[in-house]
Structure formats: C-alpha cells, structure tokens
Design a protein that fits this description.
The chain is mainly alpha-helical. 61% of the residues lie in helices and 0% in strands. The chain has a domain of 56 residues: lambda repressor-like DNA-binding domains (434 Repressor (Amino-terminal Domain), Orthogonal Bundle).
Length: 89
C-alpha cells in the first residue's frame, strides 16, 4: 500500500521526467511551491485528495482503485482470472 510520502516521491520523479519546475507545477496546479516541495520531500502529513489528483494528472500519473486483498491469490484465483480475460468478461 502506498502512503503520502511514497506518492510525493512518485510525483517528484514524474515532474522531473517532464522537466517541470516546482514553480511551473505550482502555477499549473494552483498549489503553492512550498506545499509541493513539502509533499515531494515527505514533510507533509496531510493533503487534500483533489490537490493530489491535480498534481498527479499534471505530471502524467494515473490513479486506479482496486480491491484490497491481504491474501495471496491461489492457483484457482489466477486460473479464473485468466479464463475471464480470455472470454472478455
């Protein structure tokens, strides 16, 4: 499971790959440069979901929801998933 510190690091890496400065990201997102810097460096304990999604979209990151599963999949689970993919379900 990813936490806010991991997410901040991913945003930082994606921002650098796109050659965006924090200043430009702040301008595009409407968030302050200081807030973005704090997120990227793991110094923010809470940030609104909308702000995180905005940053992710600008730097080209995707957000996906999946069902949290603490157990490892069984062979049967994998086979059912494979069968479903073949049928196109």
């Amino acid at each position: 499971m990813i936490d806010l510190n991991d997410l901040g690091n991913e945003i930082k890496n994606a921002r650098k790959q796109r050659k965006l400065t924090r200043e430009k990201l702040a301008e595009l997102s409407g968030l302050s440069r200081a807030r973005i810097e704090a997120l990227e460096n793991g110094r923010v304990s809470d940030m609104g979901f909308k702000g995180v999604l905005t940053l992710m979209n600008i730097v080209g990151l995707d957000f996906r929801l999946t069902t949290f599963n603490n157990r490892r999949p069984t062979l049967e689970d994998i086979m059912e998933e494979d069968d479903a993919a073949r049928v196109g379900r």
